[in-house]
Amino acid sequence: MAYLEQEIDKIRTDLKASLGMDPVEHCLARIKTEESMREKCRRNNLPETEESALGAIHDAIGLRIVCAFVDDIYAIRDRIRALPDVSVVREKDYIRHAKPNGYRSYHMILQLPDGYFAEIQLRTISMDTWAALEHHLKYKRDTGPQTDLIIQELKRCADELASTDLSMQTIRDMIQDRTGQDAPDNGKPPIGLTDK
Ligand code: 0O2
């Protein structure tokens, strides 16, 4: 896990230098608890053994990378794919192909140089907030007669957040294009520095 965190730090530093801003809002690493591993083995009809836990279940080690902008997710994904000592076992693009409930995230299962598997989840801040709220729903067994409404509202919010993420990305692109265009002193101030 330390190895993976170091590699992500290096990617983050490189991209920060080329983008002019940190692509990562925050990064969270976790090792699945024993109880959580057992529960996942049971859910997948696997024996509750060390072999299942480390061989068949691929997210004992998890890293969640939260970005402000969607394009940064794909930039980090490309850099992870290019890591020489890591093989990408599986990828799921729930951003381009959202789950029916509205869940969005980019998932990668990696095999690390020591042979262990790790799951990386890449998301925007809004996808992360949404997933945390929706996760509560799964563990709150009884939401009573409101359940359908909650599911429906969560889906509506997920779609609105995705649309806002796209708009934010577009605004950033416009600012960066304009800033790039203005870089060789053409007399125009960059967007954001014009009249108030
Ligand atoms: P936990 O307790 O959060 O870790 P796999 O892991 O590949 O065997 P699966 O379900 O095919 O199983 O993988 P997938 O779809 O890539 O999901 C892996 C993880 O993504 C889940 O881990 C969740 O953390 C998260 N996730 C996937 N779908 C949803 C969703 O609809 N809502 C939310 N909030 N999170 C989701 P776990 O082990 O299921 O759960």
Task: Set out the fold topology.
Layout: H1 2-19, E1 24-31, H2 34-43, H3 50-56, E2 61-67, H4 70-81, E3 87-93, E4 106-111, E5 117-124, H5 125-139, H6 147-182
Parallel strand pairs: 2-5
Antiparallel strand pairs: 1-2, 3-4, 4-5
Helix pairs in contact: 1-4, 5-6
CATH class: Alpha Beta
Tally of contiguous helical segments: 6
- CATH architecture designation: 2-Layer Sandwich
Q: What are the segments in which pLDDT stays under 50 over at least 5 consecutive residues?
A: 182-196
Note the gap between the termini: 48 Å
Shape designation: flat
Helical content class: 40-55%
Count of domain modules: 1
Give the helix/strand class.
alpha+beta
Bound molecules: ligand 0O2
The strands making up the biggest β-sheet line up spatially as 1-2-5-4-3
Give the biggest sheet.
Answer: 5 strands, mixed
Count of DSSP strands: 5
Question: Radius of gyration, Cα only, in angstroms?
Answer: 20 Å
Estimate the mean pLDDT confidence: 88
Question: What name goes with the CATH superfamily?
Answer: Beta Polymerase, domain 2
Q: Tell me the series of helices and strands, N- to C-terminal.
A: HEHHEHEEEHH
Q: In CATH terms, what is the fold-level topology? A: Beta Polymerase, domain 2
Relative strand content: 15-25%
